[in-house]
Structures are given as C-alpha cells and as structure tokens.
C-alpha cells in the first residue's frame, strides 16, 4: 500500500515538473520573441534608418544633388561616419560652388577680353580702310597713321597683360625664388621710380629700414606687383598726389604698404578690387587699362605665400592703402 502511494506521488511530481518546464519554456519563448522584436525595432531605429538616410544622401550627392547635413545621435562609431560624410559633403559642395564661380568668371573674362580687343581693332580697321580708300586728306593722313600706331600698341599691351594673367593662373607656373635683401630691393625700385614720379608732378614718401630684411622672393614678379599698384594710383589720381611706400618688419612676415592721398577707391568696387576686369567707373571707362593689374598683383603676392588687402579710409591722410605681407621664411 505504501509502495503504491509512493509510486503515485512520483508520477504526480513528474507530471507537475513536465507542466512547469512547459510553462517555463513558453514564458521564455514569449520573452525571447518580444526581446527579439524589440531588438529588431531598436536596430531599425538606431542603424537601419540612419543607414538608409546616409545611403539616400550619398546617392543624391553622387547624382549632383545639393548637400544635406545628416543629424545622428547614437553610437560613437556611426556618429563619426556621419560627421565624416557631412565634412566630405561640405567640401564637395564648396568645391562645386567654387567651380561654378570659376566657370562664370571665365565666361565673363572671355566676354571682357573680346570687348577690350574689339575696340582698338575696330578703330584700326576703320582708319586703315579710310586710308586705303583714299578718303583721308594728305594733311590728316599722318594723324590717322599715328592713331593706328597707338591703337596697335594698346592692342599689343592688352594681349601681353592677358598672357601674363593666364600664365600666373597656370598650375605649372613657378616663381624664381631667391633669398635676397627686401630692403635693398625696394630701395633700388624707389630710386628707379623716383624721377618719373616727380616728372609727372606726383610726390613720394618712403620709409625703408637701413638694415637687411632677408626673405625669398621673385624680383621680376614682385616688381610687377608694385608697378601695377603704383600705375593704378597714377592713372586714377590728379597731379600733386603723394604716393607712399613703407616697409616694416613684423613677427612672422614683412609688411609692405603702398598707398596714396588721392581721391580714394569707389565704394562699389572695394570688395571686388582684386577681381579681373574691375576698374573705377566700371571697366568700360575712357581711361586705358585692362582691369587686370590688381588681379595680377594679388596672384603674384599669393604665389609668394603672402596676402594683400585694400584699406580704404577717406578720413585718413592716405585714403587708399594696399597692404602686402610676405612671409620671412
């Protein structure tokens, strides 16, 4: 009897254990399923959606679309990927804008070059035709020939300036850099220029240190940069104007100041003064000039790893100042 009861108890316990195991398994399965579903949802929110957004942005960028910043807050690794993509996109977008601006500038330049070349060519053709047809009196022939000669010289000068500008813009152009005394170079330049400045009834103020200031520069190109600034000053100012040239030593560079006390720079071109084909009263004024002088000067200074800026102050003694900085090393 006791053995029979004991056997029944064991069977009952086994049944209960089986049911408990089944219930435990079902609960585990439910928890596992819910956890898996939640994990998949989290993975979709944290990884899949950002990846889809990143992929969409990459496709848009590859097809020439505009830059869109990807905002993501989550794992450090994926945040780094998004930040790198944003940085790359910004650079590509900036490069695209610069390229579009460059293409626009090139088109404008071609149009301006065509205009500047067309004017003297038209005059030369007209006067040559008149002389050829014999409709110019003998008394006026010499005058017309002189005009043709002057216009052909203007044409040659324009072509040379355009060539110089394009040469500086070429990737293979190299300066002839030599370590020399900048003080002595500017002193020699001023001595060469001094007589001409006073012959045209301009004045000159010069401040150059007595001691040597050594740095690497291209004499020919730096002289051209100075010539362009001073020619610009002479062209747009009246007799009696004073031109100043000052050389100063600073911590990391040498500062060259070239200015004048003339009429100043028109406000509407101050911000674009170093752009190609920009001159006072627009590039179509009556004064001769290609409008490339200061653009060439800027390129020359930048080729020296320096910088140039315009300081325009109508209330100071020298209303127009071009400040050039050339690194010591």
UniProtKB/TrEMBL annotation:
What general EC class does the enzyme of this chain belong to?
Answer: transferase
EC number of this enzyme? 2.7.13.3
Subcellular location(s): the record lists: Cell membrane
Q: What GO molecular function terms would the record report? A: ATP binding; phosphorelay sensor kinase activity
Say where the protein is mainly found. membrane
Give Gene Ontology CC terms.
plasma membrane
Coiled coil regions in record: 85-112
All residue ranges annotated as the Histidine kinase domain in the record: 112-329
The residue ranges crossing the membrane are 21-45
Under catalytic activity, the entry for this protein gives: ATP + protein L-histidine = ADP + protein N-phospho-L-histidine
Q: InterPro entries, per this entry?
A: HAMP_dom, HATPase_C_sf, HATPase_dom, His_kinase_dom, HisK_dim/P_dom, HisK_dim/P_sf, HssS/ArlS-like, Sig_transdc_His_kin-like_C
Q: What is its membrane topology? A: Multi-pass membrane protein
Q: Which UniProt keywords apply?
A: ATP-binding, Cell membrane, Coiled coil, Kinase, Membrane, Nucleotide-binding, Phosphoprotein, Transferase, Transmembrane, Transmembrane helix, Two-component regulatory system
**HAMP domain sequence ranges:** 45-97
- Which Pfam families would you find in this protein's record? HAMP, HATPase_c, HisKA
Q: What is this protein called?
A: histidine kinase
Q: Which organism does this record belong to?
A: bioreactor metagenome
Q: Encoded by which gene? A: rcsC_205
């Amino acid at each position: 009897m006791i053995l029979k009861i004991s056997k029944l108890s064991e069977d009952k316990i086994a049944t209960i254990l089986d049911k408990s195991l089944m219930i435990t398994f079902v609960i585990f399965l439910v928890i596992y399923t819910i956890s898996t579903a939640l994990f998949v949802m989290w993975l979709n929110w944290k990884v899949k959606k950002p990846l889809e957004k990143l992929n969409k942005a990459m496709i848009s960028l590859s097809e020439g679309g505009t830059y869109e910043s990807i905002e993501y807050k989550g794992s450090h690794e994926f945040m780094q990927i998004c930040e790198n993509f944003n940085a790359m996109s910004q650079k590509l977008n900036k490069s695209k804008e610069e390229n579009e601006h460059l293409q626009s500038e090139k088109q404008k330049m071609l149009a301006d070059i065509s205009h500047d070349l067309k004017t003297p060519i038209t005059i030369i053709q007209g006067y040559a035709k008149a002389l050829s047809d014999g409709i110019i009196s003998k008394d006026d022939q010499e005058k017309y020939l002189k005009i043709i000669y002057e216009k052909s010289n203007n044409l040659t000068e324009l072509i040379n300036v355009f060539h110089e500008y394009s040469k500086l813009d070429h990737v293979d152009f190299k300066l002839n850099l030599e370590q020399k005394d900048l003080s002595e170079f500017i002193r020699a330049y001023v001595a060469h220029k001094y007589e001409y400045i006073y012959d045209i009834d301009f004045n000159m103020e010069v401040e150059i240190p007595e001691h040597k200031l050594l740095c690497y520069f291209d004499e020919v190109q730096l002289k051209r940069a100075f010539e362009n600034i001073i020619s610009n000053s002479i062209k747009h100012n009246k007799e009696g104007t004073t031109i100043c040239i000052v050389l100063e030593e600073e911590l990391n560079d040498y500062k060259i100041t070239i200015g004048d006390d003339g009429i100043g720079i028109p406000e509407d071109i101050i911000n674009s003064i170093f752009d190609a084909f920009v001159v006072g009263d627009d590039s179509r004024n009556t004064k001769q000039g290609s409008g490339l002088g200061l653009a060439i000067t800027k390129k020359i200074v930048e080729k020296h790893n320096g910088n140039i800026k315009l300081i325009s102050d109508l209330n100071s003694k020298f209303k127009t100042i071009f400040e050039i900085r050339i690194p010591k090393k």
